[in-house]
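Quick one - first record:
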Amino acid sequence: MENAVGADFMTRAGFGWTSWRRVLASGVALAFIAGFVGSADAARYSRTQTAKKRDVPAKLPFGELPKGPLQMVVSIGGQHVTLYANGQRIEQARVSTGTPGHPTPLGVFSVIEKDRWHRSNLYDSAPMFYMHRLTWSGVAMHEGVLPGYAASHGCIRMPTGFVSRLWQITKLGVRVVIARNDPVPYEFDHPKLFNPSLRPVAQLPSVEPGTGLRSTLATAAPARPVVLAQADEPARMTDAVEPAQPTAQSEAPAATPPAEVETTAATPPVQSADAPAAAPAATPAAETGAEPEKRDPTEAEPRKPLPPRNRAGEPVKPSGQVAVFVSKREKKIFVRQGFQPVFDMPIEIANPEQPLGTHVFTAMEIKDGGGRMRWNAISMPAEHSARPIDVRGGKKSRNVEPVAAHDGKAPSTAAEALNRITLPPEAVQRISEMLTPGSSLVVSDHGLGRETGRYTEFIVLTQ
């Protein structure tokens, strides 16, 4: 009945079945064309957006950073870390440091290892991603939970958004200062700070043909004896990579590869069984009094075999930024380059009863055509002026770290400390020849920290 009514209605309206089918076919065709055009437009839009993305440079982790060394200052009292580039403040982020039972050490450190997917070997493989190691005994900066107060086992927990970006720009050797308060880097100039040495080419040591470059440590003869730090103090400079007791995050670095064997004139030639014997050395003309016999120009000169050279017996010249440490306790200057000891020497300090304080000087930029270095300084405040730390976060259960006692004598300012120090001229000369941006000078009343060892710069513990 309904079909009949529908057919009668279409007949009265002038529509036949043929017309109706034409309408349906036209609608389907229009829908297909519209879909095709839409797909083509979508594809064209996608290609346009892809081209635009290629033209847009990749987003920098912290924007356009000033060109210069990075520095980080961790404030235990403020529970935050501040990132500096070329002495300029870039960004600050919240942190969570160690509790009184597992305190975060105070002092001067540098990044000695990085591990993107590090996990703890003590605390049930707890994730410590974006790890920046500060000591081989287990202190590091890494991603972690931030409850708003000190809650770690000695490490410095950082928010993911900050430490993941930090990971992209840091390199080994970046200086990290951990203090109770929040010391700020400042521009600093002093006549006793090192400047690059502009040595004329004529003064450079000559190189014999076939011997290759040799270390300047072997050719330079200092006016006073220079003692390698490792040989002078074996107990202090021992390998701290594998501690006696397992600690969090302790991982040994890769072993040093065996020395390469080359050839040099320093050792006798090695001849094979089928090689002709070497001709005996000719008698010098000075001994016989006769003119040496002239060779026929047509006679071929026999090829002399290159004598073997054992580079393991030669001193290895390190490379990279230089780290210098002046210790009032030990009355010495220690020098490292590329995490390796170079030399140490005794120094003189005026008014030894007066504290020097702890000051970190960082070489920022070469100026004046290579003849001067721009420096900045971080002076760590005296411990007695530090405010206590809230390590629990609640008012009812407030617990504070004890403040370290001090002897009542105010430490010297950075300028006063440098004025009191007399360095050997030969030490200044050698440091100036190795000086590059990123190098550092640490002046402190303290001695070499127990964490200072192989594959580290100078770790100075102020607590």
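second record:
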Amino acid sequence: MNLVGNVQLVAGDSEMIGRILTILGQEGLDVHGNPDLYIREYGSFGVDEAREIATKASSRAIASASRIFVIVTPGMTGEAQNALLKTLEEPSGGARFFIVVPSPLSLLPTLRSRAQILELERGSGRALVDAPAFLKAKPEIRLEMLKPLLEKNEDDKKDLSGIISFLSSLERELSNDKKPDLARLSSVYRARKYVADKGSLTKALLEQVALLI
């Protein structure tokens, strides 16, 4: 697999870490106990996390040609992405980044333009909410179908990775229509864009999608 540039975006979750390490191992990198390999899973990724990564990326590699960062998160706030732009565009010491999110298309165009999107094989895990079935269901049934994502409808217990994956699946299904309904697509896009932001009302965003599509 040919890696282009210093930034790779991968669709998925923590299961992709092993696949990324395999790629790095094939390049001859020591992936066991390497002080220059930084692997981190985040429940959420805001501007503070972005600044932490930027600070670590500015330090010199110890045992390798460059530092490598594998970042796994269900989503990044817009503020965090903007804070990362300079680090990704001009990485110190040739630092490399693998950013794993449920849907790379959910990231800002300015960030995606600096990256290569890697198509890696994903596991066959069953989605919590089936997007095609959701679209066919009546609104009141859709609201019931959302409950596994919200975990008792408590925002502080939300499965953010599952939510973004679900919204991305909905967006793909709607985009595949012969004549996509832009209003329906827009409601899903807005929810996917804002659901990872701190303080977002996840339950309200998903219920709006269920009613508007």
